[in-house]
Write a structure and sequence with these properties.
Blueprint (H helix, E strand, L loop, with lengths): L4 E7 L4 H11 L5 E8 L6 H7 L4 E3 L8 H14 L4 E4 L8 H6 L4 E5 L11 H8 L3 E8 L9 E8 L6 H24 L3 E4 L2 E4 L5
Parallel strand pairs: 1-2, 1-4, 2-3, 4-5
Antiparallel strand pairs: 5-6, 6-7, 8-9
Helix pairs in contact: 1-6
The protein binds glycinamide ribonucleotide (GAR).
């Protein structure tokens, strides 16, 4: 029997993917509950979304810590206190450290606005335009120690038009992110993801 999963969402800014998850949860699209939102940025618009959605949130202001280790200690402690089944990096703009990755191995997923392994890191849409690719997209993957390199759960392609700019491309990709991320969360919450080394098998739905 599938149990209701406890989900933490981490984000650093606008929070539109976080909103997509809130909306999906409200529609019962996955057997999970967003128990907490955590941000490293006190000015993140996502905080407002948490307030409106009545989701408890923590602001762990990165700038108040002496170094990344101290920040991550606090982050880890906060996450552990929530006893999550799943942590979703939804626009979280920091590389998660080894200790946290190890602690939540196979329970930590990230969304990236490119078809990995192409264009990892920041400004993925700009990288795609500068490279001149005809197709890019978004990727949802498990997080491992190596940045943007964990086992892939889902990918969706997006075509790059002739006169595309970063903003128009980011917007097109984002529309698919908002569909793919809740779907990946659904697959996780339904215990349908089996990780075997680099490969993620998606089990059929049990009716
Ligand atoms: C999204 O496009 C997400 O894929 C990207 O940041 C944006 C956040 O938007 N994430 C990364 O680039 C991570 N490397 P949102 O705050 O509106 O969800």
């Amino acid at each position: 029997m599938v149990t209701i999963k406890r989900i933490i969402v981490l984000g650093s800014g606008r929070g539109s993917n976080f909103q997509a998850l809130i909306d999906a949860e409200r529609k019962n699209l996955f057997p999970g509950r967003i128990i907490t939102f955590i941000t490293d940025n006190p000015n993140a618009h996502a905080i407002e979304r948490a307030r409106k959605g009545e989701i408890p949130f923590f602001i762990i202001d990165f700038s108040l810590f002496h170094n990344k280790n101290q920040y991550e200690e606090k982050l880890l402690e906060t996450m552990l206190s929530c006893a999550p089944d799943l942590i979703v990096l939804a626009g979280y703009m920091r590389i998660v450290g080894e200790k946290i990755v190890k602690q939540f191995k196979n329970h930590l997923i990230n969304i990236h606005p490119a078809l990995l392994p192409s264009f990892p890191g920041l400004n993925a849409q700009l990288q795609a335009i500068e490279y001149g690719v005809r197709i890019t997209g978004c990727t949802i993957h498990f997080v491992t120690e190596e940045m943007d390199a964990g086992p892939i759960i889902l990918q969706k392609e997006v075509y790059v038009d002739e006169n595309e700019n970063v903003e128009s491309l980011a917007e097109k990709i984002l529309a698919f992110e908002h569909k793919c991320l809740p779907y990946a969360v659904k697959l996780f919450c339904e215990d349908r993801l089996i990780i075997n080394d680099r490969h993620v098998k998606i089990l059929p739905r049990v009716s």
